[in-house]
What we know:
single chain; binds guanosine-5'-monophosphate; alpha/beta; four-stranded mixed β-sheet; five-stranded parallel β-sheet; Rossmann fold
Amino acid sequence: MNNKGKLVVISAPSGCGKGTILKGLFDLDKEDNSLVLSISMTTRPPRATEQDGVDYFFVSRDQFEKLIDEDQFIEYAQFNGNYYGTPRSFIEKCISEGKTVFLEIEVQGAEKVRAKFPDCVSIFILPPSLEELEKRLRGRQTDDPKVIEKRLEIAPIEIARQNEFDYRVVNDDVDRAIDEIYNIIKNH
Length: 188
Ligand code: 5GP
């Protein structure tokens, strides 16, 4: 990894294995320790396994809207009825320290980040097929069936925007996808 800080934007429909891929990337980077993951803020309620300050900063709509007014987000969007946003101060600090910062965000947010930071690297992760995505989402059992249905409706809309990204990676084999993304980031 070189010493210049950079922003990496990763988008993928829910159920594409983003979490596993990110974990794999951070494992590969253990020695370099040059990658950091931005923790987003959301108004979505936490899932049973999620921790405040680790998976997200969980806040109320009022709190979120106050932070919007104070220009504290580099981007934010609404997804499935909830706000999600990237806090500004952490990103700016990491970039100034030469870190590579990952933003794991949906496609509207990715568009805003690309407009503000044209040097960012944007990567879209694709499922092997929509059938496979549906199988993974239904098997996950962390979301309410209604939420899963909604996510399955959103997925093709997001996939239709894949060409807006610098790179597209198919998660047909998770180790291969991790290597591909790691090489993209190193060589970009
Ligand atoms: P989930 O509810 O599954 O954690 O996230 C729903 C969607 O919101 C995912 O596509 C995720 O990448 C996206 N997301 C998470 N954090 C942010 C953020 O800070 N900004 C935007 N625009 N999207 C986000």
